């Protein structure tokens, strides 16, 4: 008489386990935003419930003529797509440039840096004189605006000044708050960094 309840319970447990790794016909949620130690730094956990679910890292269906390995940034929707084979992409939530700092175009990843230094450009120091102390560069760390990783975008062999980078400001994801760079959650930029090759094409639209 107890077989049916046991079968139901087993089915529910199996469904719960599968939901964490795959979902046929829908997105696959893959992100872990737990605290993690990286290169001696302890990245704090991201409060998942405070970040809208559409901005959590996930695999989605994505049709494009661009080759796998391409990065496509949709600034309007606040999504970054890393193109994968078979009509799929890893999608990340992003923060983008505030009004007056938006940009569009095609670039290439020329450099990748783990826990990079950050040097505010002269124009930024002019707008915010308090940043002058970092004219020679801000050391890597949990409060560094570039976060845990940075991908440097070049066009025609020249540095655009724009980066794909992490941020400690998780609340800025899904918003237009930056000075033009594309920011991701620190745990997401670590994931993207491990996927993107030097020379990868980046399309910002």
Automatic annotation (TrEMBL):
A single GO BP term for this record reads: cell wall organization
**Alphabetized UniProt keyword annotations:** Cell shape, Cell wall biogenesis/degradation, Glycosyltransferase, Hydrolase, Peptidoglycan synthesis, Signal, Transferase
- Domain named L,D-TPase catalytic is located at 69-205
Q: In which pathway does it act?
A: Cell wall biogenesis; peptidoglycan biosynthesis
Q: Which GO terms describe its molecular function?
A: glycosyltransferase activity; peptidoglycan L,D-transpeptidase activity
Active-site residues, Swiss-Prot/TrEMBL: 165 (proton donor/acceptor), 181 (nucleophile)
Q: Which GO terms describe its cellular component?
A: extracellular region
Note the InterPro entries from the entry: LD-transpeptidase, LD_TPept_cat_dom, Transpep_catalytic_dom
Signal peptide boundaries: 1-19
**Entry-linked Gene3D superfamilies:** L,D-transpeptidase catalytic domain-like
| Protein family according to the UniProt entry | Belongs to the YkuD family.
What name goes with this protein? L,D-transpeptidase
What organism does this protein naturally occur in? Answer: Phyllobacterium salinisoli
